[in-house]
């Protein structure tokens, strides 16, 4: 048996998310079907996490156990030649049998993109939330430090969350503004990117944070309200859930030392 770790990037516009759903049409469904076409094996892949319908991924690691002896360097091309054009395997490596793409993950980073320009970008419309109204980006930035640390994030979790604990750790949260595309004569604000890194995230957590940030940017809440919302541990205290299309799983990080240690344990 071999344990293969791969990274997939995908445009989630036309899918019901990464993880298999009763209605099908998920990224996982297509990858598993493609592996079956290639090897004849019916296998289950295990992702580093799940993404909701319409959410995208720049780097989504997953692993699976296979008896196939296809050389590791051939997997990427073989799968990409059979997958839909909006799903692409970007890397493949063999890892110890003890490795698990979700349980072994140390840090995950999401990016949420807000187009603050008057006119939405035709070519990026599926990857950005369009918000032409004026936003106080400085106030939005001032609210982010309240999210850093280890907290109970119930206020920023979906009411349908089934997790036993809503305690997570956020290591970093920052806003970057790309003003490279500007149109004279209007109050163009550029593209506002939120990058948020943690040890894990709850269902809809980043999107609810974004919805709350937008209310702060619109002047409906003060930056300090983020602290009170967090402490209340009540979903009703936070803002709305932002659209899924602006969200992208940006990066998942592993401890290479722990991978090597698990490899030694397999021997």
TrEMBL record:
<feature type="domain" description="Pseudouridine synthase I TruA alpha/beta">
    <location>
        <begin position="147"/>
        <end position="255"/>
    </location>
</feature>
<dbReference type="InterPro" id="IPR020103">
    <property type="entry name" value="PsdUridine_synth_cat_dom_sf"/>
</dbReference>
<dbReference type="InterPro" id="IPR020094">
    <property type="entry name" value="TruA/RsuA/RluB/E/F_N"/>
</dbReference>
<dbReference type="Pfam" id="PF01416">
    <property type="entry name" value="PseudoU_synth_1"/>
</dbReference>
<feature type="binding site">
    <location>
        <position position="110"/>
    </location>
    <ligand>
        <name>substrate</name>
    </ligand>
</feature>
<dbReference type="InterPro" id="IPR020095">
    <property type="entry name" value="PsdUridine_synth_TruA_C"/>
</dbReference>
<dbReference type="InterPro" id="IPR001406">
    <property type="entry name" value="PsdUridine_synth_TruA"/>
</dbReference>
<feature type="domain" description="Pseudouridine synthase I TruA alpha/beta">
    <location>
        <begin position="9"/>
        <end position="101"/>
    </location>
</feature>
<comment type="similarity">
    <text>Belongs to the tRNA pseudouridine synthase TruA family.</text>
</comment>
<comment type="subunit">
    <text>Homodimer.</text>
</comment>
<dbReference type="InterPro" id="IPR020097">
    <property type="entry name" value="PsdUridine_synth_TruA_a/b_dom"/>
</dbReference>
<feature type="active site" description="Nucleophile">
    <location>
        <position position="52"/>
    </location>
</feature>
<keyword id="KW-0819">tRNA processing</keyword>
<keyword id="KW-0413">Isomerase</keyword>
<comment type="function">
    <text>Formation of pseudouridine at positions 38, 39 and 40 in the anticodon stem and loop of transfer RNAs.</text>
</comment>
<dbReference type="GO" id="GO:0160147">
    <property type="term" value="F:tRNA pseudouridine(38-40) synthase activity"/>
</dbReference>
<protein>
    <recommendedName>
        <fullName>tRNA pseudouridine synthase A</fullName>
        <ecNumber>5.4.99.12</ecNumber>
    </recommendedName>
</protein>
């Amino acid at each position: 048996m071999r344990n293969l770790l791969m990274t997939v990037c995908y445009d989630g516009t036309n899918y019901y998310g990464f993880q298999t759903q009763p209605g099908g049409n998920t990224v996982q469904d297509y990858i598993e079907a493609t592996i079956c076409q290639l090897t004849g094996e019916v296998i289950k892949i295990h992702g580093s996490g799940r993404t909701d319908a319409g959410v995208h991924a720049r780097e989504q690691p997953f692993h699976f156990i296979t008896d196939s002896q296809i050389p590791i360097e051939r997997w990427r091309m073989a799968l990409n030649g059979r997958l839909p054009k909006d799903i692409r395997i970007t890397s493949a490596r063999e890892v110890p049998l003890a490795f698990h793409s979700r349980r072994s993950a140390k840090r995950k980073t999401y990016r949420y993109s807000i187009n603050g320009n008057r006119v939405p970008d035709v070519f990026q419309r599926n990857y950005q939330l369009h918000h032409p109204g004026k936003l106080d980006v400085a106030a939005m930035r001032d609210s982010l430090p309240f999210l850093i640390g280890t907290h109970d994030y119930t206020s920023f979790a979906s009411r349908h969350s089934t997790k036993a604990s809503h305690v997570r750790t956020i290591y970093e949260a920052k806003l970057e503004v790309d003003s490279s595309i500007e149109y004279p004569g209007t109050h163009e604000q550029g593209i506002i990117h939120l990058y948020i890194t943690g040890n894990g995230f709850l269902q809809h957590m980043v999107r609810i944070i974004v919805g709350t940030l937008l209310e702060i940017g619109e002047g409906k809440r003060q930056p300090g309200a983020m602290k009170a919302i967090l402490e209340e541990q009540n979903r009703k205290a936070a803002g709305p859930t932002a659209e899924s299309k602006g969200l992208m799983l940006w990066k998942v990080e592993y401890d290479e030392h722990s991978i090597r240690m698990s490899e030694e344990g397999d021997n």
